Amino acid sequence: PVFPFPEVPMPHRSLLFDLYTDGVLDAAFLSSFRPEPLGPEAREIVDAFRALSERFPPEELEARGRVPEEALAEMGRIGLFGMSLPREHGGLGLLFGQYLGVVAEMAPVDLALALTSLAHLSIGVQPVVLFGTEEQKARFLGPAARGETIFAYALTEPDVGSDARHIRTSCRLSDDGRHYVLRGQKTYITNANYAGAFTVFAQLEGHRPGHMVALVVERDSEGFTVGRDMAKMGLKASSTAFLRFEDVRVPVENRLGDEGQGFRIAMSVLSYGRLAVCAAGVGLMEASAEAMAKRAASRVQFGGPIGRFELVREKIGRARANAFVGRAMVELAARQLEEDPRANVAVETSHCKLFCTTRAWEALYDAQQVAGGSGYLATNPYEKRLRDFRVATIFEGTTEIHTIYPPLVVARGLGRRLPKRTGGRVGALLSGIFRRLPAFPVTGVGQADRALRLARRKARGFAWRIRAALLRHGKAIAGREFLLRRLTWTSLYGYGLLAGALRLAALARAGGDTAGAA
Prior knowledge:
With about 525 residues, the chain is α+β, with helices and mostly antiparallel strands. The protein has helices spanning about 15-20, 25-30, 40-55, 60-65, 70-75, 95-105, 110-125, 125-130, 135-145, 260-300, 310-340, 345-370, 380-390, 400-415, 420-435, 445-475, 480-510; strands spanning about 150-155, 170-175, 180-190, 195-205, 210-220, 225, 240-250, 255, 300, 305.
């Protein structure tokens, strides 16, 4: 067996990866962590989105099966397509954490409408922000911020999903060296029929799999076809379609980064996309907890409100606790990306994606359950939220992928650090098993410090177990999925405890709301 996920060289900082492989912890970064308030500008965007949703109600957009042009134009006017883009290029310049806070507020209102701006900002145009030249930024970001050019991200293909290294769309440099000639197909592309530009990933012909380029393909390019929107279970107002490239000539000026850097660009950008999906999940967990609490107080059965029943209170408490931890995990990963936009947060964002999507789905189910028969009616938001969010456990990496992915990332990192000789490798792994991890921060908040001590034990358990697993299984660890799942959840619980404790301590010191932390 071989590792199913390719190695992606990412020289930038990583919190968990560095802790597990090198025993290094950035205590100063952790100690400085504070939850990011939305701020007045972000609040204005949320209010504007709510007003937009009143003008274009979710049920009407769903019946239409698309967002009308006048709604897209209004989204551009109120800044929904430029929230996180730099001010110098016409955006609002929100910090990434603030942008995610806006996503969390928008998701319960209408996730299908929110997805149009979310997909544009988080993955569509983000490659230009991270890897574009100054000329490319000047050319593309202004129209993107105003909503004049909506972006889409094109990686997935009919026969290739999670195994993105082996996409079949290919390109070659033209004889005159002025264009890339692109051919192939993409599918399930969000914003396809709204977009004026597409960030497309293609294999460079004549090179090994994974040697890719990232190209900005403009909609009016000759030989480029966008299919009809696909009928879907949910998110019906969002656009999802098929793309076909038949010898499309893309100017070399539209290449992002260097030749061969495309796969790295794709993987880096997916971290932003995962966190946006997670933020939506957090918002839906919080909305579900609030809906359950209201229902539990108002619905009377057996002589009293149903909120007195333990099984109902359990559902409310679980949603609140998971929302608190999920928000903390997302905020901590977002802060890493704010400090270093190309930070290697693959493990952290994978943990966020697994936790926030599965726990949000649970909260949505519970909210419908507490609502009883009325929860099954389409006149209430429960069934639409379930349908809209169902895909969240599938795109941006399936639940199954994220259940095994983090230990394999760490295993690859350890493998790069081991001596080539067998004896040396065994010795290095054994010494790592007995290595002490650095101390975690002390916050002075009793409940938070207890959680931090437990987080350190979880991290220690993961660090020695991954080395023991490599000693026993070597590269065959890739096929030991039950073992990988146990390792993933050990690390995830540790990260959740770490993030939750830091958020709790920061809120306690500031006198903020710590509901859900218990």
